[in-house]
Amino acid sequence: MTTVAYCHPLVPPEWIAAHGLQPQWLQPKRSPTAAQGAVRGACAYAGAVVDAADRGLAAAGLVLTTVCDQMRYAAAVIDRQGRQPVFLFNVPATWQTAAARQLYLDELRRLGRFLVQLGGKSPSAEELVGRMQTFAAARAALLAARDRLSPRQLAAALARLRSADLGIDGSMTSAFPFPGGMPSRGVAAGRHVSDHVEHAHPALRVVRACHPPPSPSRAPRSGRLPQGAREVVPLAIVGGPLVEKDFDLFDLVGGCGGRVVLDATEGGTRMLPAAFNPERMAEDPLAELARAYFEGTPDVFRRPNDALFTWLERELAERGVRGLLFRRYVWCDLWHAELHRFRQWSPVPLLEIDVHHDDQGAGPRIAGRVEAFLEMLQ
Amino acid sequence: MNDLPRRITMREWDDRYADLRARGLREADYGGPLRRHVDDGDDRRLLCLQLDNSPAALRLWNFLLTEEDRLGQAESQGKKLVGTMKDLGTVPVMAYALPNLVAFYPDGAWWLPCLMEDRTNLLAIADSLGIDESFCPVRAMLGAFVTRAHFPIPGMLTCSVGATCDDFSAIAQRLSGMGHDVLWWEMPHRRPPEPGEPSVALPGGFVAPASQVEFVRRELQRVGEALAAYAGRPLTDDMLAVGICRANCFRRELGQLRQLVFAAPAAPLPALEMLIAEMLAVHFCSDQDEALEVVRSLRAEAADRVAKGVGVLSPRAVRVYWVNPVADLRAMNLLEDLGGRVCGSEYLFCHAIEPIPEDLEPLEALARAALADPMVGSPADRAQRIAREIAVIGAEALVISRIPGASHCAWEGSIIGAVVRQRCGIPVLEIEVPPITDSIEPSLRTRLEALLETAQENRG
């Protein structure tokens, strides 16, 4: 199957899959050439994406977005490399106007034409609805199980979900990293539309616009251990994208007596779309797809970006977070500029983790800081 | 006193000014000796600069360095101030169509650390707010909003976002977080039209899909409605059309000045004064009528010098095309000190120099002008435009001046450099120019010398 790579959660994998193509969530590795770019002020992540593309992706095309200026420029660099077609998805920074929402929808349509050029087939409404249901069910099931997964497992599962291996039955079983699969596996494979949207499926009823976590009875919250046990400090992490190696940070936190109970990085649960509304989905599935993604994802690049703080405020409280890891790439202006505001705003202690091009996952510098932070919180 | 065109120091300007006055120099109400900007305004960088010795240049510098007074006067006269951030050239045209509004760019604060040799404390304030030197020097704007010392806080702020540099977007967001109400308007990334998609030619030669022009037109309509509400009077198409005509008067005058100066065998005006003159196009330095007169004076001076066959630099000076404005004005002097001259420029806002179409519905015309911003499209498009200009004017070398910390500068240089090398076959140099270059001047000098020597060798 033809593969299309992408690396921003505002690109709906449902839309790629509905065209009969395989979405591939790009997880670039840090590279020496990215280090050269860092001298000039290039973001290590954007540099890694450029390097990955230059080495050659196992994909027929690459979709990048305009949510950050460095990636916008990176798209031009990759386009000049000429190794694969690049689609630059224009995601509006403003969100308040109907025009901005329409622009996002129009960009989805343009992406569809790009996908057809790559060999995809323009989907019928029914086909799109089917894909939306499948992904919605997978996301809902994953969210329902989040407290039974380690933070690394959850992050890995989200990454795999975004590059779902859509088998014959579309069940996406490979997205689930734990034995036995998900409770909704059968659901995803064969039940009706209404089972996968907010009005019908019990697990999805709570997955509203900003998908708050499952109810307390579903699973023990991290950090709430039996009396006498060593206290596990629940942490949240917020920031831009992680690469796979960065998942070491979750283990590091665990090894220091903490647990990341809220992954609010770019690839984490913060950037999952809102639940689909069944009536709107039946009426116009693409418009509903656009609404769920564009209006349901609070991010730092939005202007204004107050919704990010509103979302975090609620989530930190809901998940009993006692410390916040603020992770940023050294040359990422969008997150860096918000650090000061986060320090003033955060209801819990905050630790900045600035990541250079040569910081591999959780190196000694980062480890020392995280360890001290958790000691302070325990 | 010798009236031959020269670049002179501030000390020389003291004598020159006294002489000109004695000979009956007539000035505008903001006129006076340049020295006062050092003594009263603490613009100490002027002491390190070589300035053109013409009365026209005197007028230009005085006009530039009195903008704060002008804004204060406008406010005291009951006019309303609009801070138009980022779009560089479009929203001010709309604001000036309303007679009781005065528009200016708070972004302009980015030159204060240079002009005042960092005695403003603006960068230190930005530091204290978490906006450190990893950001573009435009972070000085944040400090200026805090100190309220360098421009009046406008009653209305607009900011274009979307396809804009992250530095500015992030800093403007911080302003919003500090309680300043910002009207955000979307500038989409200008993309190539798809096959068969209706497209529109933009001023300056770029092309955009008609749908993007329509999107920006609607965004500007939203901005226009907000401006009208702020002004307390309607903003009609007729008013906008008049505003466009007035802006075009300036742009055409500036275009003729550039043509005259860049094409002359010996540069009749220095690069520094030309850079300042181009900057006026962005918002007319808060006085549209006077800005036009200032540029007219410069053109008259340049024309006179060309007619006499004289200039401020040797006719043998290497013809250099310059990309991006410099955070330290001294860098423009340095190029000329070393035997170069600027014969073409692209200071990020070439869309503010191109005339706005007058045969279209005004908002449509403004939308086309806004989308012609070289920074909202692919850097490859920008590079092609630069290469076209280089070919036309016959530049012998290209300098790409990086702005420290600016997100686009990490990437664009390699693309622009590659395209120009390939298409024009001229030497290309990237330099980084911080707000004060004194500590790196030896290395800057060496690099520029190497470029100019290479270009000279290419003459054969």
Write up what this structure looks like:
The complex is a heterodimer of chains A (378) and B (460). Chain A has 378 residues and is α/β, with parallel strands linked by helices. Chain A folds into three domains: 3-122, Rossmann fold, CATH 3.40.50.11890; 124-211; 213-271 and 298-378, Rossmann fold. Helix content of chain A is 44%, strand content 12%. Chain A has helices at residues 13-18, 32-39, 44-55, 69-81, 98-117, 125-144, 151-162, 185-190, 202-205, 248-255, 278-283, 285-296, 306-318, 333-345, 364-377, and strands spanning 3-6, 22-25, 61-65, 86-89, 233-239, 258-264, 323-329, 350-355. In chain A, helix 2 (32-39) packs across helix 3 (44-55), helix 3 (44-55) packs parallel to helix 4 and helix 6 runs antiparallel to helix 7 (151-162). The termini of chain A are far apart. With 460 residues, chain B is of the alpha/beta class. Chain B folds into two domains: 68-236, no CATH class; 240-458, 3-Layer(aba) Sandwich (Rossmann fold). Chain B has helices at residues 10-22, 35-39, 55-65, 67-76, 91-95, 112-115, 122-128, 140-147, 166-177, 210-231, 237-263, 271-283, 288-308, 330-337, 362-371, 379-393, 412-424, 441-458, and strands spanning 7-8, 51-52, 80-85, 101-104, 156-162, 182-187, 199-201, 207-209, 318-323, 340-346, 397-402, 428-432. In chain B, helix 7 crosses helix 8 (140-147), helix 10 packs across helix 15 and helix 11 (237-263) runs antiparallel to helix 12 (271-283). Classes of the chains: A alpha/beta (378), B alpha/beta (460). At the A-B interface, helix 4, helix 5 and helix 14 of A face strand 5, helix 9, strand 6, helix 10 and helix 17 of B.
